[in-house]
Design brief:
Elements (H helix, E strand, L loop, with lengths): L5 E5 L5 E5 L10 E6 L2 E11 L7 E4 L3 E5 L4 E5 L6 E20 L8 E8 L2 E9 L11 E11 L2 E13 L1 H5 L5 E20 L2 H13 L1 H15 L1 H6 L4 H15 L19 H7 L5 H8 L1
Antiparallel strand pairs: 1-2, 2-3, 3-4, 4-8, 5-6, 6-7, 7-8, 8-13, 9-10, 10-11, 11-13, 12-13
């Protein structure tokens, strides 16, 4: 794995994850994004296991992704129709959690307020966005708040509460703003984390506990869903294995653009539901999903 590659996971409800094999994020458009109501929020900027080791092999199963390092592996999984991300390691390690909570297209730097605490094995992060006169017409006016709960099977090693400067190399190559400060909230020593997002602390904790308790069942459901998407490709295998693989990849890629009400125009930059794009693309969706968009 000499060059950087990236992957997408989807909750099929507008929430998605976009991480790369680089040791640190290379774009402000990478991370875990959650759709709450009609708004898309970026939540997690990075999840860094310690020690840092290069990714030797990356495996993408569609519904989950596996990164093999020299002495451990890490996996990412998003349950369907939930604002959650599951992160697992092959052995217990310290895991650094970096946040950049914001509306997906809001890149203001000031007025970002975090608080971190733990409740019975769950790290809870509260984020409150307020206006700031350095960028806004007012100061101290609350715009929104979001709660993130991270249920783990280890221990909270440290509440870091530290701002870290990032310089995103891929954004710089695109002549897009590439410098931004993100928040290093905590370090958790664990093998498994289930991260959930909601407008209330109780809602985030409830979903994190539910997902953590049912990881295997949720994975099985997602695997069955993606296997179903690839059934059409199985008919092509007699003709061409390569053609079948291409068909499977296209079906999975389109499915990852699905939201609860339509299709995203394209990720990671065009996280909007445009009617023209959706109508053109939905003909390739399964009948039931196509009807949801057309009807």
């Amino acid at each position: 794995q000499d060059s950087e590659s990236s992957f997408f996971l989807s909750g099929n409800n507008g929430s998605f994850a976009h991480f790369s094999t680089a040791q640190k994020p290379t774009s402000k458009y990478q991370g875990f994004f959650a759709k709450i109501g009609n708004n898309l929020f970026k939540i997690i900027e990075g999840i860094n296991p310690v020690p840092e080791e290069k990714v030797a092999v990356a495996e993408n199963a569609g519904y989950s992704t596996l990164f093999h390092h020299r002495t451990f592996y890490e996996s990412f999984f998003m349950p369907m129709r939930k604002n959650s991300l599951v992160y697992q390691l092959s052995r217990e390690l310290p895991v650094e959690l970096f946040f950049d909570v914001r509306m997906a297209n809001d890149f203001r730097q000031w007025g970002r307020n975090y608080s971190v605490h733990e409740r019975e094995g769950i790290v809870v992060v509260e984020f409150v966005k307020k206006t700031d006169s350095r960028e806004d017409d007012s100061s101290g006016k609350e715009e929104f708040s979001v709660f993130v709960a991270a249920k783990h099977d280890g221990s909270l090693t440290k509440v870091d509460s530290e701002w870290i400067k990032r310089d995103y190399s891929l954004d710089a190559q695109r002549n897009s703003a590439s410098e931004r400060h993100v928040y290093k909230a905590a370090t958790v020593t664990a093998k498994t984390l289930a991260v959930a997002v909601a407008k209330t602390a109780a809602g985030a904790i409830r979903e994190a506990e539910l997902v953590f308790k049912n990881i295997d069942k949720l994975k099985s459901a997602s695997k069955a869903h993606y296997n179903g998407l690839c059934q059409a490709g199985s008919k092509l295998r007699k003709e061409s294995k390569l053609l079948s693989m291409a068909n499977d990849a296209a079906a999975i890629a389109l499915d990852k653009l699905r939201t609860s009400s339509g299709l995203y125009a394209g990720l990671p930059w065009f996280f909007h539901e445009w009617s023209r794009d959706a109508l053109v693309s939905c003909v390739a969706l399964p009948t039931a999903e196509r009807k949801k968009i057309i009807m």
